[in-house]
Amino acid sequence: MAELPDKQIKRLRSLLQDAETNLAAAREMLMSVLGEGGLVIAENKAHKSSEPIDGKVIEGFFDGQQMIGQDDGKVYPVPANYASKSKLVEGDIMKLTIDENGKMLYKQIGPVPRKQLIGTLVYHDGKYFVEASGKEYMILLASVTYFRINVGQQVAIFVPESNEEAGWAAVEAAL
């Protein structure tokens, strides 16, 4: 594979960051139109009838960005707005139902014990982190846009209580 020149790599990173920012802004706008719960909660409400959802059910754990299937080891994309609003923490047990139309409905079924930390939002290498207790925890871009956090601002986060190796945190609030 040919190596890309630094200028192209910087441009690609810039394009990806712009795309992520635009996607987060679009999700935020959609949430404002649909209400605080956003798209995933609107989908949940549509399925809250007395009839069961037919489809494939998969259980797994949240790795900070996505769900890893317990039985198949496959990676399932978790909507960032759902993960952010639900304050999912690395290790949370989840259930995914894929209906007959291919619609994916996630539900947190086993939250891991959490501890709350206070830290500072930082940005480098194209990602947002919260620096807390001498460690940097990655956070979702959707959390940054939803809570309107600025670099340098204090943030309350949740991390798994017993997993010292966790690299991800859920944002509780901007302070």
Task: Report on this structure.
- This protein is an alpha+beta fold.
- Helices cover 29% and strands 35% of the residues.
- 26% of the residues are buried.
Proportion in β-strands: 35-45%
**Amino- and carboxy-terminal Cα gap:** 46 Å
In one word, what is the shape?
globular
Number of strands: 10
SSE order, one letter for each helix or strand:
HHEEEHEEEEEHEE
Output the strand order for the largest sheet: 3-2-1-4-5
Rg over C-alpha atoms, rounded to the nearest angstrom:
17 Å
Structural class: alpha+beta
Q: Oligomeric form of this entry?
A: single chain
Low-confidence stretches: 35-52
Largest sheet: 5 strands, antiparallel
Percentage of residues in helical conformation:
25-40%
Main features:
single chain; 175 residues; alpha+beta; five-stranded antiparallel sheet; 10 strands; 29% helix; globular
Secondary-structure map:
Blueprint: H1 6-34, H2 38-46, E1 55-62, E2 66-69, E3 75-77, H3 80-85, E4 93-99, E5 104-110, E6 114-124, E7 127-132, E8 135-138, H4 141-147, E9 154-160, E10 170-174
Brief rundown of the structure:
This protein is α+β, with helices and mostly antiparallel strands and 175 residues long. It has helices spanning 6-34, 38-46, 80-85, 141-147, and strands at 55-62, 66-69, 75-77, 93-99, 104-110, 114-124, 127-132, 135-138, 154-160, 170-174.
